[in-house]
Structure formats: structure tokens, C-alpha cells
Amino acid sequence: MLNPNHLIFTLAAFVMAQAAPAAAQTAVQGGPDCSRTLTLGLHEHGLLYSAKTGAGIDKDIADELARRSGCKINMTLMPRARIWQLIESGALDLSLSGITNEERDKFASFAWYFSNKYYLLVRKDTGVRQLSDFQADGKLRLGVIRAFRYSKNANRLVDALNEEQRVTYSTSLEPLYKVLSSNSIQGMIIEPFDYSQVSNTSIRDFTMIIETRDPSIPHGLIMSNKSLPLKEREKWSALVAEMRTDGTMLRIFNKYFDPQLADSMVNF
After folding, report:
1. Is residue 179's pLDDT more than 60?
2. Which residue of 25, 111, 119, 210 could cross-link 221, Cys pair, CB 3.0 to 4.6 Å?
3. Do 97 and 29 share a structural domain?
4. Distance from the first to the final alpha carbon of the chain
């Protein structure tokens, strides 16, 4: 008997693959090798990508990379944890909006194009005013997306609570918002891409945003070291750099954020 969730995911992946831009079949001279179809993983996360609309910052950037390179890129929607697994194995070439750490540096390369801070979204009725308050109250649970890593202080909180079995994991934000509303969790780590989902719903009425006191963290194009030779990774990095210098990246971010925030994220 077919698992309904598996069927839905399979259909979503098929639709995403078919929706990949019809890039020119002739590779741009001096650009990436387009002799084969490349693969790119998208994950659903706030303004980065929405399966409901088929749009988002990551999708816009992927479309532009396909146009500039002349390569055919098949885009597939999948959980973030799965993306990292496939990047490491070489079964997936690219993904977007990734951050690095010591472990990821062993199997992936990155081309940075924006930077942002992480925050703690917490229920007002907890009385929490800083990260240490959340950790100190043993009754509070935190919600995070599986395989996500954040900034230093945010990671420290996640890891400490995980040791105490006070972390609820999910593959996307939506389930976490629901359990936050029901008070099954009392906080979650968010970033600017999630602001619209908070401000445009009832969530804003019973939550507040708390600083992690971490600096901004660079995010970028993720490239598999196993599937893409160094020279190819350098070519993709060059395309990302072009998009930053010619203003394309800023124009994309301006579609989703106010100009001041977009500028601070892209020009870091």
C-alpha cells in the first residue's frame, strides 16, 4: 500500500523538476560545464521557497544561475537534512542559502551572497527575556528544523537543550508554528525569511523576538565537492559574485524585504 506522504513528496519533486527553467542548451563560453543536467535541491523555508506558490528567493537565484550559465538545472523540493546528505554523497550538485561549519567544509564548498542574524522567537507568557532564561527554565521546549545549524549562541542553546531532551524537531517551519501556538513548544529559532509568517498571523500576538547577540552569518550557494571538480566550483562561485556586483542579487532581495534590510543582508 502506498504511503500518502511519500506519494505527495514524489509528486512535488516531479513538479519541481518539470518547472525548472528551460535554460539555453549552449553553455556560456568560459562558464560552468553544461554537458550534463545539473541537480539543485530546494527546501521550503519562509521567503526562501514556498511549495504553495512555487516562488521564493532561492528559486529566483536558481533561475538566474541557470540563465547565466546556460546549463539545464533540475530543481527538486526536499527536506534540508536530505539535501545535506545528498550533497555529501555527490548525488546532488547544488543547493542554496547554506551556512558552513567544520563538518560541512569537508564535503561542500560555498559561494556567499547574503548574511543575516538568527533570533529566538519565544512565547510572551514564558517570561523569557534572554537566551539564558530559556535554558534555565527546565519546563520550556525549543523547536528547530532537523539538520539546521545557526549562529554560535543559538547553536549553544540548541545543543544544550538537546542534551536535556528539550528539543522538538521538524522538517519545516509550519509544524513548529502549530506546536508553538498550542504551547507544546515555547520557542524556536528564526531569521528574517520567517518574519512575514510571524507578522501576518496570530503568532505575533503571543510571541516576541529576542536577540541571540550573535553576529550575522554568511549564507551561500552550496556545491558538492564530490560531484563538482574544483574548477567547476570556481566557475559557479564566479557567477554568484557577478550577481552581487552587478546588482542582480540586491534586486532579488528587494522583492522580498524592505530596501534597508535587503541592502544590509546582501552588502555585508
Report:
1. yes
2. 111
3. yes
4. 51
Do 180 and 241 fall into the same domain?
no
Q: How far is CA 245 from CA 31, 71, 248, 250, 252, in A?
A: 17, 21, 8, 9, 13
- How far is CA 265 from each of CA 67, 98, 116, 234, 261, rounded to the nearest angstrom? 24, 14, 6, 23, 6
Same domain, 173 and 259: no
List, in order, residues 6 or more apart from 104 with CB less than 8 Å away.
Answer: 84, 98
- Per DSSP, 104 falls in state G
Ramachandran bin of 96, using left for φ above 0, alpha for ψ from -120 to 50, beta for the remaining angles: beta
pLDDT of residue 5 exceeding 80? no
Q: What span, in angstroms and rounded, lies between the C-alpha atoms of 243 and 113? A: 9
**Per-residue confidence at 198, pLDDT binned at 50, 70, 90?**
confident
- Which DSSP helix (H) or strand (E) runs through 16? helix 4-18
Phi, psi dihedrals of residue 257, rounded to the nearest 5°: -130, 160
Residue 100's CATH number: 3.40.190.10
Rounded CA-CA distance 184/181 in Å is 8
Same domain? 17 vs 137: no
